[in-house]
Design goal:
It is built from 14 helices and 25 strands. By secondary structure, the protein is α/β, with parallel strands linked by helices. It folds into two domains: 275 residues, Aldehyde Dehydrogenase, Chain A, domain 1; 186 residues, Aldehyde Dehydrogenase, Chain A, domain 2 (3-Layer(aba) Sandwich). Strands 15-18-19-14-13-21-22 form a seven-stranded mixed sheet, with helices on both faces. The protein has a six-stranded mixed sheet with strand order 10-9-8-11-12-24, with helices on both faces. It has a three-stranded mixed sheet with strand order 1-5-4, with helices on one face.
Length: 484
């Protein structure tokens, strides 16, 4: 099977081919994806620019109908799409189903936003003059999305872009896994089926150095929304700012989870295990640093080790699997490299960390038993870098104040969590944690679709994503004066 780019309402062959391999069973080659070249990207941008005049003046009802129908179709096809996601990216079926459902509800939410768009009418400070403040679409928006949430992240960028009247060129993740491409193309197919006009959405597949560079540099692209690594995000920001294009960046995190002496131990353990290990740790909101005060430290570590013994690492589509494979061979190698670094830095590996060559049924795959380090120090690389795998390190703190300081001791600021029964500490932590998302007695990974998403420091740049706050990025404000 060969999948093509979607440009100006047509499926277009590319210049090269990207293989699509099942990480749970590397013998399962699902198909290939044709890569676009620079000329095809420019054609897609031209199609989006031509479609903007009509789509930007479409009625709120037209946009509502298309987005709502799209959300409904995604929900109706949840079993099919979740199985595709689990097969191609390695999420368990439970996690994949949750992601697909979230994508469906994102489209339904932003269908409502299309008809909830509002402005302001104010009295002028000058007599006889009326003032109107309205929001208008930006124009052509380039969306660059990662592989780890291949339907949810395109959905939470694409739905608000369309709801607010923009046209789109979407570039999914480059090579691995191809599910990022397949699910993005499924969105294009569903939107087209539900009446999206030709040229409004274009999906181009290819390398970031080729496809992404054309998107960020082309003056016909009015804005770029990017989710991915810090280095790439910074280069995109530099290119956009140089030509005064609007830019929005989400770039990951090194998220802490604090456990205080007064925490409910079972709650703290489940939060830490869910945040750090589920989805094979491949979530930007995953907590890979657990900071534990000294009174509960030993009991907490022992309980986590015991819980890890009961985790099943196996084929993502197999019932009963808690954690599927990591996404590909390169990610597995990176995870193992960080585990080796942790040991060489003096941290103590108390559980897991070994690769598993085959699933329980004997299929070759990229499996890794989750790793837990203790006796770690803040300066260790495993406590500084975003590993993006099921590797968690524990730091010991003497009290709440030191735990908060350790939590904030990072270049990132996406998510931060705490387990405590103290209302005073919970309230103080919510106010003083240097993160865009804070959780209390809940995992840091797992967020609602109707509220803002984003972080601080090196994690994010620009307006927030999702919820009604998405309008801050996908629209521009106009102030009009009228003499009565």
């Amino acid at each position: 099977m060969q999948t093509r780019s979607f440009i100006d309402g047509e499926w277009v062959a590319g210049a090269g081919l990207t293989p699509n391999v099942n990480p749970s069973d590397t013998r399962d080659v699902i198909g290939g994806f044709a890569r676009a070249d620079a000329a095809q990207v420019r054609t897609a941008i031209g199609a989006a620019r031509a479609a903007f005049a009509t789509w930007s003046t479409s009625t709120p009802q037209q946009r509502f109908d298309i987005l709502d129908a799209t959300g409904g179709e995604i929900l109706a096809r949840r079993v099919e799409l979740a199985d595709q996601l689990a097969r191609e990216e390695g999420k368990t079926l439970t996690e994949a189903t949750g992601e697909v459902v979230r994508a469906g509800y994102l489209f339904k939410f932003f269908a409502g936003e299309a008809i909830r768009r509002a402005g302001d009418f104010l009295e002028s400070v000058r007599p006889g003059i009326g003032v109107e403040v309205t929001r208008e679409p930006l124009g052509v928006v380039g969306l660059i999305t990662p592989w780890n949430f291949p339907i949810a992240i395109p959905a939470w960028k694409l739905a608000p872009a369309l709801a607010h009247g923009n046209t789109v060129v979407l570039k999914p993740a480059e090579l691995v896994p191809a599910s990022a491409l397949a699910l993005a193309l499924a969105l294009a197919e569903i939107l087209q089926h539900n009446g999206l006009p030709q040229g409004v959405l274009n999906v181009v597949l290819g390398r970031g150095s080729e496809v992404g560079a054309v998107l960020t540099d082309d003056p016909r692209v009015d804005a770029i929304s990017f989710t991915g690594g810090v280095a790439t995000g910074r280069s995109i920001a530099a290119a956009c700012i140089a030509r005064m294009a609007k830019v929005q960046l989400e770039m990951g995190g090194k998220n802490p989870f604090v456990v205080l002496d007064d925490a409910d131990l079972s709650v703290a353990v489940e939060c830490a295990v869910s945040s750090g290990f589920f989805s094979a740790g491949q979530r930007c909101t995953a907590s890979s640093r657990v900071i534990v005060t000294r009174g509960i430290h030993d009991a907490f570590v022992a309980a986590v080790v015991d819980r890890m013994k009961r985790l099943t690492v196996d084929d993502a589509r197999k019932p009963g699997t808690d954690i599927g494979p990591v996404v590909d061979e390169r990610q597995l190698a990176q995870d193992l490299e960080y585990i080796a670094k942790g040991t060489s830095e003096g941290a103590r590996l108390v559980a897991g960390g070994e690769p598993i060559a085959r699933s329980a049924d004997g299929a070759p795959g990229w499996y890794l038993r989750p790793a837990l380090f203790v006796e770690t120090e803040p300066a260790m690389q495993i406590n500084r870098d975003e590993i993006f795998g099921p590797v968690v390190s524990v730091q010991r703190a003497k009290d709440y104040d030191e735990a908060l300081a350790l939590a904030n001791d990072t270049a990132f600021g996406l998510a931060s969590g705490i387990a405590t029964r103290s209302l005073r500490h919970a309230t103080h932590f919510k106010r003083n944690a240097q993160a865009g998302i804070v959780t209390v007695n809940l995992p840091t990974a797992g967020v609602d679709y109707h509220v803002p998403f984003g972080g601080r420091k090196a994690s994010s740049y620009g307006p927030r994503e999702q919820g009604r706050y998405a309008a801050e990025f996908f629209t521009t404000v106009k102030t009009s004066y009228t003499l009565s």
